[in-house]
Design brief:
Largest interface: A-D, 35 and 35 residues
Mean pLDDT of chain A: 96
Strand order of the largest sheet of chain A: 12-11-7-10-9-8-15
Number of strands of chain A: 15
Number of helices of chain A: 11
Structural class of chain A: alpha/beta
Low-confidence stretches of chain A: none
Helix content of chain A: 25-40%
Oligomer: homotetramer
Strand content of chain A: 25-35%
Order of helices and strands of chain A: EHEHEHEHEHEHEHHEEEEEEEHHHE
Largest sheet of chain A: 7 strands, mixed
Chain lengths: 332, 332, 332, 332
Amino acid sequence: MLEFCLVGGGFIGPLHAANIAAHPGARLAWVVDLDVAVAGALATKHGARATANLDAALADPAVGAVMICTPPRTHAAIIERAARAGKAVFCEKPVDLDMSRVDACAKVLESTGAPFFVAFNRRFDPSHRALFEAIRGGEIGRPEMLVLSSRDPEISPPDYVAAMPYGIFYDTMIHDFDMVRWLLADEPVEVIARTACMLDAKDNPHRDPDTAMVMLRMAGGALVHVNSSFRAVYGYDQRIEAFGEKGMLISRNRQPTTLERYGADGIRQDGLLRFFIERYAESYARELDDFVRAIEEKRAPAIGLEDGRRALAIAEAAVASAKSGAAVALLR
Amino acid sequence: MLEFCLVGGGFIGPLHAANIAAHPGARLAWVVDLDVAVAGALATKHGARATANLDAALADPAVGAVMICTPPRTHAAIIERAARAGKAVFCEKPVDLDMSRVDACAKVLESTGAPFFVAFNRRFDPSHRALFEAIRGGEIGRPEMLVLSSRDPEISPPDYVAAMPYGIFYDTMIHDFDMVRWLLADEPVEVIARTACMLDAKDNPHRDPDTAMVMLRMAGGALVHVNSSFRAVYGYDQRIEAFGEKGMLISRNRQPTTLERYGADGIRQDGLLRFFIERYAESYARELDDFVRAIEEKRAPAIGLEDGRRALAIAEAAVASAKSGAAVALLR
Amino acid sequence: MLEFCLVGGGFIGPLHAANIAAHPGARLAWVVDLDVAVAGALATKHGARATANLDAALADPAVGAVMICTPPRTHAAIIERAARAGKAVFCEKPVDLDMSRVDACAKVLESTGAPFFVAFNRRFDPSHRALFEAIRGGEIGRPEMLVLSSRDPEISPPDYVAAMPYGIFYDTMIHDFDMVRWLLADEPVEVIARTACMLDAKDNPHRDPDTAMVMLRMAGGALVHVNSSFRAVYGYDQRIEAFGEKGMLISRNRQPTTLERYGADGIRQDGLLRFFIERYAESYARELDDFVRAIEEKRAPAIGLEDGRRALAIAEAAVASAKSGAAVALLR
Amino acid sequence: MLEFCLVGGGFIGPLHAANIAAHPGARLAWVVDLDVAVAGALATKHGARATANLDAALADPAVGAVMICTPPRTHAAIIERAARAGKAVFCEKPVDLDMSRVDACAKVLESTGAPFFVAFNRRFDPSHRALFEAIRGGEIGRPEMLVLSSRDPEISPPDYVAAMPYGIFYDTMIHDFDMVRWLLADEPVEVIARTACMLDAKDNPHRDPDTAMVMLRMAGGALVHVNSSFRAVYGYDQRIEAFGEKGMLISRNRQPTTLERYGADGIRQDGLLRFFIERYAESYARELDDFVRAIEEKRAPAIGLEDGRRALAIAEAAVASAKSGAAVALLR
């Protein structure tokens, strides 16, 4: 039984807490939050202890793993403290948005040997994973082109946008950049990005890019396209298409129901699931399961810090390309 | 080159005339219609001769085949005259609605040896035929259940309905009864039918059945369901589903375009094609081609008078069951 | 917080236990099973108490509801004991297969006033419910035809089949009969059924019907078709189609992933979900939630004993029709 | 009745000839081909006259329109001769691959006032056109992103490839570039292209690009992605996706049949139509109809020389970008 200390009881925290509680091999032991009331409510629901003091929880020898659900800028410090306390670390993406900070983190993880997992949850979506396995199984032969659509139904609140300029790359497409690397088992050597501000000033007062297209050229020669928008009014649009010498694979969207409505004016279906937590509900449960089993089996978790570092490097290159207009080369 | 005398220049006549004109191995030589103006217009368009006198056209030794597009009650007499004139006969369904008249026709065809084809065009629809070939190829093993939906967007005009009571069986489902026999290569031994009048008195003043369900039990044991309605507001709904020991086959509907429209209120597509001539355009061209090639190759056309007779017998049994409430046995 | 005593720790019991544990307004207090080891394992997992003695659990005043997951023949007696103990009752379908036993149960429930719910879970499937709501909302106007496909990937084990002859009606289609009543808000007045034995003697040694079609005529005039099979090799096939004066609604099947595979030989997708527990996972959680809220709000649970009785009556009529060949009338 | 002189009896010529013959307002009067036998065969089939001498046909005052189906490098000269002879001109794309030659052509057309149509047939595909009309009708509000997939099942023969290097832009994507301009009613201001050689040396001995991605930035701000390949083993893959402030439109692929095959290993459907003539059969008939009606109504044909010129300019920019690696600016 792997006992967890969950840090950060808001936003995604309760989801992870519920998944820990439901997992046969895991138990929620501590909830840590600066807001003790938040920590307490979540802890009570799942029979855990609550504290605002991370060190107190890390001092509990029963705790085997720390799950980090706090805001991104706090991740690196908590990773390092957890690693030094000898705990396995499950961290929401990103590790950090500052590459030097990520590198420092990497050194601590290396020296402590703490198992580390960065939660690019989409790798665990059943459809995306079936696509991955079909590529690995050789169904389409050598992959030649990859096309990803990654669109949110709405933009983040202004203060969130202000805190992370170019979030369309750092926060959204960073998932897609990880998917590209994982699906193709290859690294990009060139990044070209273009952005636009399509939303009204009311919805996007900081005029941060809300629409983007990126073209990647991979070391192995494959060409990749990613597009993103912050106003897909029809729902959370998440599609992956892989084209290769022997065929094509498409991981399509998901809808709340399968109902078809035939009327005099045509055929109607539900729009797409709107919220990422609903869309990727299975992914969150499966990534936890994979992490728990990795710790049990003493193997490295499936997605490591180097994966987080490389996805961030691609996002940085995309920002640089969008700003300068030039193609940006990436060293492998 | 097979030269045709087309009898009946209205309704479906111009469609068949155009298909003859477009066929590399066929030519339209004569158009016969009691209304000489109708005959003349169609003949001129395709470089044929026009007449109101069937005998004149049948006397032309260049004519190899007669295509009958007149109202159903005139079919049998024209079949017999054409057969006695030594012509191959392509006849729109049905042969006749009176079984004794069909039997008389059969004798003439037998004695003259004239090749005969009754145009159950749906057998030539690419999707239905692919389903047929999949069954024959053993894809679903032994067929166990068959489900057919056969719905029109509207009821026929009142005078047409008055002239053919229980047209839902005699005119519409007769196609499905033929499909059942063809797809399963088997004959029904029991017919159970139920009907309803769902349309308003305005649309269905004669209160003839406009909605029906039929259950058939086949000699080989398979169970069959057919349903029909005369007010499918969403279009001409034509589906076939075959279930067997190794799987299921579905011939789905067709739509005018492939456009998908994603909006805040869901996803919309076109409704179905609304007119049978549009829906079965390919079938009409393909049935003609098959007939022409049968004559060329001196083989029997694909659908003979016995097929017409048996489909009519099932329709008669359905009417009897709907009226009496009893299951009606059919001798093989 | 509604405290549950769950009776029957095998088969569907653990699923219901997990749903109770996950529900914010429910708690699992007791697990009762004749096999104490079974009861103990399930109780431990969810922090409940275990016993082989139903009376002991019923004596606990904290227990507000009894959930019955035992074999069907034991349902009625447990319902009565729970009702007499003043508990609300959540019972897996069917109430009983003997109508006089059901009637006796009804009297006890009436005299005790115990809230009662029979778990026709399909009413809570999101897609089926969206179809229901579309009918109620008038989207297709008056419903005229209903077509249900209800097929299992395999037949039950021989001893299970031996214990419940005509299980295709009593165990499988009884769900569909409930759906028909619920969707149309109407009762059948006539039932016609036909069956076949299509499976090999190896898989179906008792030669109990494994394939069936039923036609229902409703009091309001609508026509209904239901078909069922015990060897849908492609998965658990559960479709509902409602046709009416203004259109058609189809609740389609569900697949494990959304992956499409395009190759030189065509396009492939996953088959259907194979297990009813997986297919109807959401239904089980939602029916529990509805039950808990009904008790909280002191309203009658959504599906009562009369619903169970009427579905059983239709199944009985179907058996009678299949045996005799006649149409069987049902009094309203 | 518009009488046509068709120039070039091979390849696409017979298709256009048949469409002229089938059109109620058009007639095929002449077939011109350097190979008199080719001209003769096609002319005989449709009751036209044959010649190897273009001037002879152009001298016929009954001829109102010239349809050009010859190889691309001959288009410009024939356009000019036809225009000077006072005929309306229907020309297969492209006008020419040399921009100065296109410009010279434009002057002749301007001075003669001859109606001119360049056959970007995809604009007349029913699904693509429905997408166009949905954009124009405001269904998705302002278009923000456009994604086009344009893939052939195989590469052209080596000599064809040798004669037109970068044919993936000049011959294939030129259609997509025209679609982009038409759909968005806007012009690109920047073109970025990347290519790859993925085919074996056996299939692509000249190592001309067989795989490509292009990113366009439009004057109005919209971002566009186009991808192409010469080995879509699953068929001729032609999709358009338009994303805007109010939704998304997708023009999907077409399949030969609607058959679905459910088996123990999943669900299978037909692959895509494989040949562009089959895929775009309706487009060819509809573009002819539009041309004939334009001449009748004395309005300019729907797609003029300037459209051909601008599509070519985008293709040239794509080649330049692919070669240099730089983004290429386009003046409006």
